Amino acid sequence: MFFIDTIELEGLGNRSYLAGGERTAVAVDPPRDIDRVLAAAARRGVRISHVVETHIHNDYVTGGLELARMAGAAYLVPAGARVSFPRVPVSDGDTVDIDAGVTLTAMATPGHTPHHTAYVLHDAGSPVAAFTGGSLLIGTVGRPDLVEPRLTEQLARAQHASAHRLATDLPDATAVLPTHGFGSFCSSAQSEGDASTIGKERAGNAALTADVDTFVADLLAGLEDVPAYYAHMGPTNAAGPAPVDLTPPAPADAEEIAARLGAGEWVVDLRNRIAFAEGHVAGSFNFEAEGKLATYLAWMIPWGKPVTLLAESAGQLADAQRELVRVGIDRPAAAATGGPDRWLREGEPPASFPRSTFAGLAELGPDRVVVLDVRRDAERAGGWIEGSLHIPVHELHRRLGEVPDGTVWVHCAGGMRAAIAASLLDAAGRDVVAVDDGFDSATDAGLPLISG
């Protein structure tokens, strides 16, 4: 009998897997915080004999090299991947024994990267699951534009061919187990649903229902901005990531927090956006720990700039550290827990700004203030408030000078990104109101909308 355990990486929108039999198992595309994988193996009472990568990842730092070292496992990496560390190079058709009757076969599936490789899990000789990495996802495919712009169309066509190879070579009942597609920007579109099979994908995935030219044209037309930190993930993974250090950062008192702000470093408040708006250290930025912390902080912070984390509890701080090491922000410069009463120097008042809704904006009148839309291009294309300014949140820290004078009412699709943007504007000394509301409410409020 075989098993497959899924290890969710919700903040990044990815999944890793542990699969095997009674005694031994394989880890697929493991996260950098490998203790989660080791704990999953311990719960199963199995030894990790193999660690495999479907590709050199562009959206997170892998834990594969360190996991293989810790577990004494063979580290399988596609042969076409250029790396600087010893590994077992894997080519199309290679098969390894995982446990009695449980085998893993490599299947070349270029497209997301030129060397991308899927792995088919067989039980008693029959295929039961395909670890498809960034090739065939649930309802979509991995984006083909993360390697080199000149290769994008070629890789998009390869994605179509790879999807058809999987659908042709595998039975309909084979489970499709991708790494990307659950919120990751490595996906060309967001997956619909939580589980799938080859048969389901054959019926509904555009890679399998559209001709190659139509598929490629639609795929390329739908690609959005690439998170800036992706440029650092591939080289880090190819060089061989260092082990992580999740011990608590050096504690910072109010004087040090002020000094770090004065030096131009980033001080990030991890509390929820309501608490931040009500009172915070002036100059700090709000990236909610419960939001997509790693994605947006790594996307927006100048790479390598020191960051100090402010958390409401030691647990929140530890969770944030875990999220951030996955994207290469290894060690916060310092940290503090509690609240503004502990983070502000004596006599220093907390900063704050109001929150509101689209109904509040309609009541005031959108023509009386600056309305700033920080959604992505594709979201805005579906409709926007007449007269609003559009700067995607990941560009705002570089484009603050483009925001006109006056009070700024900032919104996104749900509130999280508006809170980030409001904190940036507040830190720059602007009068800001964070619209903490779903964009559907703009219509209900009677705001004038322009259709895309």
From TrEMBL:
The keyword Transmembrane helix does not apply. SUPFAM superfamilies: Metallo-hydrolase/oxidoreductase (SSF56281), Rhodanese/Cell cycle control phosphatase (SSF52821). Keywords: Metal-binding. PANTHER family: PERSULFIDE DIOXYGENASE ETHE1 (PTHR43084), PERSULFIDE DIOXYGENASE ETHE1, MITOCHONDRIAL (PTHR43084:SF1). The keyword Metal-binding applies. One of its GO terms (biological process) is glutathione metabolic process. This is Glyoxylase, beta-lactamase superfamily II. CDD domains: POD-like_MBL-fold, RHOD. It holds the Pfam family Rhodanese. InterPro entries: Metallo-B-lactamas (IPR001279), Mito_Persulfide_Diox (IPR051682), POD-like_MBL-fold (IPR044528), Rhodanese-like_dom (IPR001763), Rhodanese-like_dom_sf (IPR036873), RibonucZ/Hydroxyglut_hydro (IPR036866).
